[in-house]
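Allow me, if you will, to draw on your knowledge of protein folds for a short while. Thank you for your consideration; the sequence and its tokens are set out here:
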Amino acid sequence: GGKDRRSGLILTIPLCLEQTSMDELSVTLDYLLSIPSEKCKARGFTVIVDGRKSQWNVVKTVVLMLQNVVPAEVSLVCVVKPDEFWDKKVTHFCFWKEKDRLGFEVILVSANKLTRYIEPCQLTEDFGGTLTYDHMDWLNKRLVFEKFTKESTSLLDELALINNGSDKGTQEKERSIDLNFLPSVDPETVLQTGHELLSELQQRRFNGSDGGVSWSPMDDELLAQPQVMKLLDSLREQYTRYQEVCRQRSKRTQLEEIQQKVMQVVNWLEGPGSEQLRTQWGIGDSIRASQALQQKHEEIESQHSEWFAVYVELNQQIAALLNAGDEEDLVELKALQQQLSDVCYRQASQLEFRQNLLQAALEFHSVAQDLSQQLDGLLGMLCVDVAPADGASIQQTLKLLEEKLKSVDLGLQGLREKGQSLLDQISNQASWAYGKDVTIENKENVDHIQGVMEDMQLRKQRCEDMVDVRRLKMLQMVQLFKCEEDAAQAVEWLSELLDALLKTHIRLGDDAQETKVLLEKHRKFVDVAQSTYDYGRQLLQATVVLCQSLRCTSRSSGDTLPRLNRVWKQFTITSEERVHRLETAVAFHSNAEKILQECPEQPEAFNEVEQFDEIEAVGKSLLDRLTVPVVYPDGSEQYFGSPSDMASAAEHIREKMKLVSLKKQQLRQPEATTPES
């Protein structure tokens, strides 16, 4: 690292007591002499051969070897001799004699005399100088430099090959580059090593207490600091290009991967995925069949969902590339995104359409099954013969029948709505059939739907016809029960009229006028009873007609008619007895009142004794009838009113008979006095 007075580099060759290999020494000298620049070599070398620990013949051999290893560059060779060993004359004579042949001057000098030829600041401490030198430190740095130079040079070649090959862009280049696309060493590591080395080269070390500047063993001229800087600059340039190439390559690779995945998704959706949907066109003919098709469709959806997940991931990647991509990639990326979205949305729409179609089919079959069960229940109800206990139960049964029929109507209406909706969806199925003719498949589905609706309509119509017949029959039965109930009620009413006639119609009147009024009221009372009886007869006749129509026997009409006739017979007998008593009472009161109202000045009116006798006879007859009960055909007897009531009526008649008798006596007295005078 030191320099002589001519600024030539100093080369120190330390020799030791051990055997020195000339071959190794030659190789070492060749390496060391290759380090300085040509400019430095032109200034010549000063070689210091340290022979203090070696033999003369070795020193001589080394000096002679310099002629071959270091030609004209050597200007001076200083052989440092031991203090008490070599013969000065011999050694000096030998080198002096060989001076012309060697081409350089050789000087034998002691270590302490070396400063005569070289400045102390350019000599190390071994030769009494002040130059700071650490051979291991120099060696380590030199190894780092050599490694950096080798790696950087190789790396530059690789990067240049990669960058230039990427610029050409041909398929052959791309194939060759793909095989060795990654450099053999890490560029970051090489750059870091170079920067650290450059930092070491740029340092200046200061030594000595005198503050003088010493030459660094890692001088620019020795380690070629500009070469390191040049290599670093070239590395940075090539690495920057390499990074851009890698970025472009990565982007292109990512774009190709995305394109490949997009085509995988598109090819599957348009291929196997679409084929799965093409094979699934049926809607099933029952709830179980529709549920099986739904389960199959769920399996298809599960397979599609995996590809849809890939679509979502790809869409996010494409969106990220669109946000950060170059302009030349935007068109391709947008085209990929649009193609992927179109296919996925179309396939998703088809899946949703198929799912909706199957759901509509399931609802249709559910409504059809419910309606079928309702029709079965209604038919079962109609097939059972009606045997109600009374009209209320018939009304309840009829109401239940009407409710079931109404429920069937609503069910059929719902079935038609579901069926029409399903038919509308099927008619739209051709829009996503990818050109496949689905007319035959759709015709089967349409025929099935229409067949189900027509079958339900026919079943409902048959049930309606049977309901009409059953309704008429039940209404007739209601009418029959009503007639029987009303006929029984008529019997009750007639019985009540008979009872009222016996218990309340007991007065015979206090005079003829009142008796006539009672007689008129009785006739009206009889008319009411007659109407009740006629109403009962008509009802019983209606029951006979209804029973004939229903082909059944009435449970009550056979008993009601005899009861009606019996009560009516009893009423007729009682009424006739009442009429006879009232008529007798009218005759009695009329005659009695006529006699009692006659004036004495008209005695000729009372000449007839028979009138009084007749009144008495009528009165007695009336009194006798009051004590006689009404006898019915079955032998039973009934009295009018209570005994006290009859006694009161009889007492009134007796009083009037007494008045008539008194009147008779009064009329007879004048008759008796006339002959005496």
Observations:
- The first helix runs from residue 22 to 33.
- Residues 284-470 form a domain with the Methane Monooxygenase Hydroxylase; Chain G, domain 1 fold (CATH 1.20.58).
- The mean pLDDT is 79.
- The first strand starts at residue 9 and ends at 14.
